[in-house]
Design goal:
Shape: globular
Strand order of the largest sheet: 4-5-6-3-2-1-13
Largest sheet: 7 strands, mixed
Low-confidence stretches: none
Order of helices and strands: EHEHEHEEEEEHHEHHEEEE
Distance between the termini: 5 Å
Mean pLDDT: 95
Helix content: 25-40%
Structural class: alpha/beta
Number of strands: 13
Number of helices: 7
Radius of gyration: 17 Å
Length: 237
């Protein structure tokens, strides 16, 4: 099984269509995995539904994503839950699924731990937009609940704190200085609950590689961590 991993798509329709067309020309991946800020479920309107239908119809591969911070969480959470590849997902379409916080999935012969969420540095702008225009574009669910954190730790403990891959939107605290050249890292001053939770996971978990997005940069940090934005990495599992 071949997986293409990329960073924030932010609802960019041309980018998704490019993945679909590239796959039609050369089907060299079976799954597209997005490290948060999926963005194709944001306004919750019929136009978005039509584009999701287009993806379902045209994409001959699975699309999975962890949530970022710029997501319409109530809309995503309204989709049905199902057991899929040993974990629970929100099923958006037959080939589009949301990977939930703290779950461990099996793709091919490898295990993948997922944990979405992150801090919106533009939160005040988004709240102001809602106050002025009446439409909501920020949701408190960008931060995990204590129940989600507890579940993640419990699930990892049941797997002896060992997985093959970790997929998140944000980065653990220890990694933040290594992505400081990117815009969002510079604009964000404080360590948040997602960073600190992921840092605890980093310290306790044995893993082969960790992929994340959020900070709008592309960099192979070391042999364990990769930040992705507009480029992708292919892995075989």
């Amino acid at each position: 099984m071949k997986i293409k991993i990329t960073g924030d798509t932010h609802g960019d329709r041309q980018r998704m269509m490019d993945y679909i067309e590239a796959h039609k020309k050369s089907p060299d991946f079976d799954m597209l995995l997005i490290c948060g800020d999926f963005g194709y479920i944001f306004r919750g309107n019929k136009d978005e539904d039509r584009f999701l239908d287009y993806i379902e119809r045209e994409a001959n591969f699975d699309i999975v994503f962890v949530d970022g911070n710029h997501e319409n969480f109530p809309k995503i959470y309204s989709y049905p839950l199902e057991k899929w590849n040993n974990g629970i997902v929100h099923t958006i379409r037959n080939n589009i699924r949301h990977l939930m916080r703290g779950e461990i999935y099996t793709f091919g012969s490898k295990t993948f731990f997922s944990f979405g969420g992150g801090y919106s540095i533009d939160k005040e702008f988004r709240l102001g937009h809602e106050k002025t225009w009446g439409n909501k574009i920020w949701w408190k669910e960008e931060f995990p609940t204590q129940e989600e954190i507890d579940f993640a730790f419990r699930n990892l403990e049941e797997h002896n704190w060992e997985v093959d891959y970790i997929i998140t939107h944000s980065a653990p605290t220890n990694i933040l200085p290594l992505v400081s050249e990117f815009f969002i890292s510079n604009a964000k001053a404080d360590i948040d609950i997602v960073n600190s939770t992921l840092e605890k996971i980093r310290q306790k978990t044995t893993f082969d590689h960790w992929y994340f997005g959020h900070y709008h940069g592309n960099k192979e940090i070391d042999d364990k961590f990769t930040i992705l934005y507009e480029i992708s990495k292919n892995i075989e599992v």
